[in-house]
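Homework help thread (please don't just give me the answer)

Our assignment gives two proteins as sequence + structure token strings and asks us to describe the second one. The first is just a warm-up. Here they are:
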Amino acid sequence: MSISNVIHRYGLVLGFLFSASFTVAEEASKVRVTAIKNEKVRFKVRTYGVLSPRVEEMSFQIPGRIERFLVDEADRVTAGQVLVELETKNAESVLDKRKLDLANARRSLDRMMTLFKERSIQESQLDDAQARFDQIQIAYDQAQLNLSWCTLKAPSNGIILKQFIDSRTSVNPGQPIFVFRSDSEQWVTKVDLTDKNAFLMTKGASAEVTFAPYPNVLFEGEITKLAKVANPSDGLYTAEVTISTKGKELLPGMVAEVDLVKETEETFAVVPFDALLDLRKNQGTIYLSSKDQTTAVEKKVTINNIEGDQVSLVEDLSAYTMVITRGQSVLEDQTAIAIQE
């Protein structure tokens, strides 16, 4: 073969290879990518409630007959102020007897200790004396406590909203005497949650609360009670949210816009919402960039939570670092890609 023919054929081969490589590069889909984040997720649930002051029913812990009232309904009271007293004659009599029993038990124990040191009695006899003394000491302490329980005191500064009993009558433990509202900066609102949102939240989850009169003020709160059983009438779960007033004046009946917030303990893959295709309820499709950044990898995903323009996913994407956020609508699995800046 002549040299001219060799050169001619060689040129044809080079031309073919150049054309082929140009075609492959031209077929690669141009895309843009974003780094996949691995973060803890903040679930946020928006709901509404009606504001009310935190109140408590006040009652005695022991039975007895009321001796006297020292306050009336609507009175303002201070922390530690005596509100009502029970008759103390019986409680004082019991305490006096327990005090005498304790003194006798102490003398008996001291005598037994002396005899034991002299080796006149066995150790078991000393142990019996100590046990009797300990038992009488417990009875004496309880008698003291019962006497103190004959007096009902204000737990903090506040107001007596309602008085259930106003006569010298006998009462049982736990029987309401007053409804008391503290002057502390805590109010409450009750909100209703669907089963899904009730499952996401727990007691202690934080709350961000706003009121129409204070549009630029974010009040802090937390879930202090969360029902474990749904309301039979509507199937919703009631949560009590305690709110700090931040020194602002609030009124009963104000509508509270409440965002309940709970941060997960584990981390999730987080991608931009724009990365998702074929959304159906909480299912969708994303395209990931292969490790060598040359190929698109199709992945079916499940949405865990949406926060603004960021979406957390249930699936583990730790094998990938980049998700395709532009140009993915024309891709298929294993499509060649060319990443643009």
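The one we have to describe:
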Amino acid sequence: MRDRIFDPSALPFFVLAAGTAFVAGLWTGTARRRRRADLLGRAGEAAALAALGGFLARTFVSLLLSLGRDSPAAALAVGWGFFLWPGAIDTFLTLVGVAPLFTPTVLRWTATAVGSFIGMADGFGRIHRWRGAGALTFALDVTWGLAGGTNGCLIHLFNFARAVREDAPRSGAHRYFNGFRIKAGYAVTMGAVMSHLPAHSGDLIRHERVHVLQNRLFGPFYTLTYVGWMAALLFPALLVGLMKGAPGRTVEDWCYVNNPWEAWAYIRGGWLDPARVWGRIAFRAVAAAFFAAALGGFGWVVWQGWLR
């Protein structure tokens, strides 16, 4: 087990990631005409976090897979829970009779690459408050919160040269004005990356910061139940919406507005039309039934992948 978790073959990658992050930090800072001290500080932090992020993410995923004896069930669960897209791809491949693409070895290297990218971006942005809880928030972002972090990396790539990034050091998250969005007028937060924020958006930032916290605290449970809630309510919402003559609005109300994770975030910031919010009794009943089923599903996955 020790050889699988602490694989020395990854060491050259950590060195390469650190070097790439340092050079990229210097190049980016020079293009933005930063002062020399600030330039070297950002580049150095990016290099250190790129290596550390890759190491922590790889170690975490390797440990999970090794505890699951590198079984197909454990690999599929890790793919879904900590990266999302590999789980979806391998599920589809399995259904059509094709061997999974994301084997334990591929998942380990995926974790290494994602963790290094998160670390590099966090170093560029200097988002973590090291004199406070920065060490903990960074560690959570590259381990327990990897699913959100993976999607956050995709937002970084999409927003590169497309969006204006707010320089908000030690704020705990990245902030992009404009950039990637799902719907006009709405911000998007994945992992510790906020996108499509309007100017002067203090109230909305408080809302989005709740999503950053949710990802760090609840990890795969947050990501999968957020998506699962939308998937579970999509068809009934569409049917009711068609009967009411407002399918789009009904789907948004059921799948997004009344999503429990969003309800929590709206307590901290943002505004919703009260007419679109379910009554307290209905909301609690549906949420309780959904999360009870979700907990049962998570328990079954843990049993299949690690305890059986």
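TA reply:
I won't write it for you, but here's a hint about the kind of observation we're looking for: The first strand starts at residue 164 and ends at 166.
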